[in-house]
Amino acid sequence: MKTRAIGMTLALCFIAAAVSFASSPNMGTWKLNEAKSKIPAMAPKNNTVVYEAEGGNVKVTVDGTDGAGKPSHNEWTGKFDGKDYPLTGDPSANTRSYKKVDDRTTELTNKKDGKVTATGRIVISADGKSRTVTVSGTDPSGKKVEYTAVYDKQ
Fold first, then answer.
1. Whole-prediction pTM value?
2. pLDDT tens digit string along 49-99?
3. Fewer CB near the last or first residue (10 Å), C or N of the chain?
4. How far apart are CA 1 and CA 6, in angstroms?
């Protein structure tokens, strides 16, 4: 009986976490709208960003091009709790943290070996159909980079 009760409790917790993530406006697939974005030449472009629930975490997968136009791919899995979690595939950072500011706003921080390389703010539109990402930081060569990217929900 105790085993069954523990199993039911764990199942309910998992369902509650899934519902919580599903209701987050960040979740889903986002495509870069280059016409509305202000990304300098030679800056990396994140063409597609996917947020999905993975257990009790969020997995963020980013596909795009680097500053030279070559394909890029990075992945992050963690919580929106402001703590650093490993980031793979990004030459300018090896950890990222996301911190929820309110229902439609999230802050992000990228770090390389503990040193901040980029900070940003993600704002989801009131209708949930677009998001604006404003980032400032340094590229792998140490050059300052600032851009605003607008994404459309798919």
1. 0.82
2. 999 999 999 999 999 999 899 999 999 999 999 999 999 999 989 999 999
3. N
4. 9
Q: Which CATH superfamily is domain 2-153 in?
A: Calycin beta-barrel core domain (2.40.128.20)
Residue 66 phi, psi (nearest 5): -85, -175
The CA–CA distances, whole Å, from 18 to 41, 48, 151 equal 39, 23, 24
CA distances from 103 to 4, 26, 46 (A): 35, 9, 23
With tokens 């851009």, the residue in question is: 147
The terminus-to-terminus CA distance of the chain in angstroms comes to: 45
Give the chain as a 3 state SS string.
Answer: CHHHHHHHHHHHHHHHHHHHHHCCCCCEEEEECHHHCECCCCCCEEEEEEEEEECCEEEEEEEEECCCCCEEEEEEEECCECCCEEEECCCCCCEEEEEEEECCEEEEEEEECCEEEEEEEEEECCCCCEEEEEEEEECCCCCEEEEEEEEEEC
Contact 25, 128 (CB under 8 A): yes
